[in-house]
Amino acid sequence: MNELKALCVYCGSSSGERPEYAAQARAFGAELARRDIALVYGGGKVGLMGIVADAVMAGGGRVIGVIPRHLVEKEVAHAGLTEMHVVETMHERKTRMYELSQAFVALPGGFGTLDEMFEMLTWAQLGLHTYPCAFLDVQGYYRRLRQAMQHMVDEAFVRSPQLEGVWFGEDIDALFDWMADYRPTYVPKWIDKSAVAP
Ligand code: AMP
Q: Which of 13, 71, 111, 138 to mutate to test the pocket of ligand 1 (most atoms within 8 A of CB)?
């Protein structure tokens, strides 16, 4: 892929049950700083979001937060970032995060994390972007989601190359190697004309 200047992380506004989630978020942030890749994320100071941002800042890296005004007012915004973009709506936030980034990585998280990541997977499927999308599968957190996505392929709701083009794994170095070699496999989603009423 082209030079990776900024990578978007989607992750929990909670830290999760197991200490390994926070540890891996810290390690991932440190690696971004070491590689001089800016972190783009949701701008919060809570949960894994805060941990990954703190780790990048502690490593001397750059962090760009994108937060909707209503969350700033709830005082969950991180005050110590390189840049903070305050936007009006959640949709604007997702668009801005996308515009600033050349790769998308989900660390463990909940509904918000999946909402953001699945939007990027959907846009890739439609050929709207050609950036790598990956799940950092700490302690097998995303194993069941991967199985559910395979079920979608098996039942012909997702084309196999769309899933094969998404990386799942726990090893941070392997993830960066995969992104460096990434070749988009854009396959237009088929339209099943037989399913359309005459
Ligand atoms: P969740 O996985 O449900 O905890 O949601 C986390 C994702 O949604 C992050 O990637 C954020 O972009 C967004 N988000 C949810 N809650 C917050 C919050 N309190 N502060 C900032 N961003 C949040």
A: 13
Is residue 192 one of the residues assigned to a domain? no
Domain assignment present for 191: no
Look at the chain and report how many structural domains it folds into: 1
Question: Whose CA is closest to atom 17 on ligand 1?
Answer: 13
Q: Which two tokens stand for residue 167?
A: 């990386």
Give the CATH number, domain containing residue 73: 3.40.50.450
Calculate how far, in angstroms, residue 191's C-alpha sits from the geometric centre of ligand 1: 33
For the segment 33-86, what is each residue's pLDDT rounded down to a tens digit? 999 999 999 999 999 999 999 999 999 999 999 999 999 878 689 999 999 999
1 falls within a domain: no
User: How many other CB atoms sit within 10 Å of the CB of residue 184?
Assistant: 13
Q: What are 31's two structure tokens?
A: 């690696």
Domain that holds residue 114: 6-180
Query: Residue with the nearest Cα to atom 16 of ligand 1?
Result: 13
Residue count (the chain): 198
